[in-house]
Amino acid sequence: MDWQSRAVAQVKTLHPYVPGKAIELLMAEKGLSEVIKLASNENPFGPSPKAVQAVQQAALNMHRYPDGDAIALRQALAEQHQGAIENILLGNGSNEALELLIRCFAGVDDEVIYASRGFIVYALATKAAGATGVAVEEQDGLTHDLQGMLDAINAQTKVICIANPNNPTGTLLSRADLQVFLDQVPENIIVILDEAYYEFIAQHVDDHQTLIHAGLVICRTFSKAYGLAGLRVGYAVADAAIIALVNRFREPFNVNLLAQKGALAALDDQAWMKEKVEMTLFEREKMECFLEEVELLTGCSYGNFVLLSHAQAADIATGLENRGVIPRPLAPYGMAETLRISVGSEAENNQFIHALISVMRELDA
Questions:
Q1: Cβ neighbours of residue 116 under 8 Å, at least 6 residues apart?
Q2: Where are the alpha helices (DSSP H) in the chain?
Q3: pTM for the full model?
Q4: Could you give the angle at which helices 257-267 and 49-58 cross, rounded to 10 degrees?
Q5: Could you read off the pLDDT of 314-358 as tens digits, one per residue?
Q6: For residue 81, what are the CA distances in angstroms to 18, 86, 175, 361?
């Protein structure tokens, strides 16, 4: 049976999201006993102890369904964002929130605009929805070309996706530039501002400088700064009417019991999160200084990762893996000469630096 001919048209060119290589897989491939993963921008310091305790306690009740409306977590998020609970949509990671938004507002004959080197899920979700993706080239190969995105808007445009800071390039758009952009976007277009790495740039943001646009949707996650990647919790903040529509696409109980309790406790432990963010920023600066010294640094990153560029990036990635370090090659983003390296703990970063020095000596020889 030719099942592909029975499937919807977009399946023919659709492919699954490919995450960073798993530690266990590299161990098996290389016969290694110790591996560090610097490929998925995870928090190397783990979750808040309060979150761990909350999850352990919640596990005693995991024979029960979670609160399908996640009222406690949504209420806490609403208070943090100075809005109402009706303004909050929870997702199984921010990925699900992004996909639900695109599915709700874009379909066949519609267009979704995003940067050519923006988060790859935008393109995958657009294709899965049957819509057409419009990838706008960056102005310098790294930074969103906001004017180019404005120029791409037409009658078919339904959604615009902007990651800030951007993954994988690490660039940051100012609030002022974003507002100038939003002022020129028709109010009937959904503008998704993906702030998965917001906590790492919070010190650059004026809390009183609120972005204004009728279709603006802010997406954030507990996977990065809060260290809850394994629980999969993300959320969107938008006009209540937008959230109500997207909520129709949401699966029942899409955020599980442990995730809800863990996220709520993590949100209540801001001091822990901010301390770990400061540690990450300190380590990021050390890594960038090293990469600049050896002339491998690509730009300045505002996320919890750095970029390394070299003509033999693929060989460097192989060499790092041979030494038990997993990087993230960016060839799928059209950046074949670039590797993204997550900021790890001090020990992990030192291991990466030593491994990279060894790999470069080998290549030079």
A1: 135, 136, 137, 138, 333, 334
A2: 23-30, 49-58, 71-80, 93-105, 120-128, 146-152, 175-184, 240-247, 257-267, 270-293, 313-322, 346-364
A3: 0.94
A4: 150
A5: 999 999 999 999 999 999 899 999 999 999 999 999 999 999 999
A6: 32, 12, 17, 50
Asked if 190 and 105 touch (Cβ cutoff 8 Å), the reply is yes
Give the integer Cα–Cα distance in Å for 58 and 40.
Answer: 27
**Tokens 């059209």 sit on residue:** 334
* CA angle in degrees (0–180, nearest 5) for 274-70-125: 80
| DSSP 8-state secondary structure symbol assigned to residue 21 | P
Among 255, 250, 207, 203, which Cα is nearest to 231's?
A: 255
Q: Does residue 49 have a cis bond before it (omega within 30 degrees)?
A: no
Sheet holding 234-237, edge to edge: 88-91, 234-237, 216-221, 190-194, 157-163, 111-115, 132-136
Reported as type and span, the H/E element at residue 234 is strand 234-237
Q: Minimal CA–CA distance to 284: which of 261, 296, 300?
A: 300
Residue 12: per-residue pLDDT: 83
According to DSSP H, which parts of 129-188 are helical? 146-152, 175-184
Q: Taking a C-beta distance cutoff of 8 angstroms, is the pair 103, 159 a contact? A: no
With vertex at residue 92, the alpha carbon angle to CA 88 and CA 96, rounded to the nearest 5 degrees, is: 80
Instruction: Identify residue 138 by its one-letter amino acid code.
Output: E
